[in-house]
């Protein structure tokens, strides 16, 4: 008999892929109007009405640096409240819970590649610190409840995700969809060049969303109980290499201009995913070029939506 999983954030970018990866489990993916995670009573009543075997918590109040700067209080309050309501209620019922976290939990000066042990070794980067601290606190809560009540959890820290269904609007988009959209629009407008902020040497760890979803589902295995696990590609890709590959995928013939006078973000970002590799045999399957091609194709088919 297949298990029943409550998936929060199931309508989002990652959540849509998690719904597919969780099959053949029965997946309950309520919208925010169907389950208000900010209301503890609503969470209690939902879990009382449904026989849930596992929970995957992928919901959150999220956004780019601009949204983090505009709403630091809400970043803390909403993410803490949603997570605490769910994790505490699940703990009372001994429902195994997978918490999807963020690289923002890591200190600004964390070593690269970043191991899980670095999480509490300093303060997160200022621009996203409030979000990072809220998500970090959910690990503390889950561990405390596990020690006191014998509940179980797994805490997953994914690297930069990209792929079909990603956010391409300027307010939410991260580096891959932002560069893809700008390159497509430059080609269509006949522009001879694209300006990219930074000198192009900054690196990012880019993981295709379907690989991430598959890794998270495998982390529901008993081997990962009460563990903190990074999910990353194991490859540092420079912004220059990313931009050049996107130009090839889009068939954009113009030039790339790297403006070193503009901020390029952290000089290096990459996660050490050794623990997930050893525990779960986690190996990304989709190469960067294939993943970018899939993302480009999806966007061109769905851009009007």
Supply the key terms:
305 residues, alpha/beta, 12 strands
- Estimate what percentage of residues fall within beta strands: 15-25%
Q: What is the general shape?
A: globular
Give start-end ranges of low-pLDDT stretches. Answer: none
Task: Provide the succession of SSEs.
Answer: EHEHEHHEHEEHEEEHEEHEHH
Category by helix and strand content: alpha/beta
Mean pLDDT: 95
Q: What's the count of strands?
A: 12
Q: Give the termini separation.
A: 38 Å
The helical percent reads 40-55%
Q: How are the strands ordered across the major sheet?
A: 2-1-3-4-5-10
Q: Report on the biggest sheet.
A: 6 strands, parallel
Question: Outline of this structure?
Answer:
The chain has 305 residues and is α/β, with parallel strands linked by helices. Helices cover 41% and strands 15% of the residues. It has helices at residues 13-21, 40-49, 65-70, 72-92, 129-149, 175-189, 209-218, 239-250, 274-280, 288-302, and strands at 4-8, 26-28, 54-57, 96-100, 153-158, 160-162, 193-197, 203-204, 206-208, 228-231, 237-238, 255-259.
Fold and architecture overview:
- Helices cover 41% and strands 15% of the residues.
- The protein is built from 10 helices and 12 strands.
- The strands form 4 sheets. A 6-stranded parallel sheet has the order 2-1-3-4-5-10, sandwiched between helices.
- α5 links the parallel β4 (96-100) and β5.
- It is globular and about 60 Å long.
- The protein starts with a strand and ends with a helix.
- 43% of the residues are buried.
- The mean pLDDT is 95.
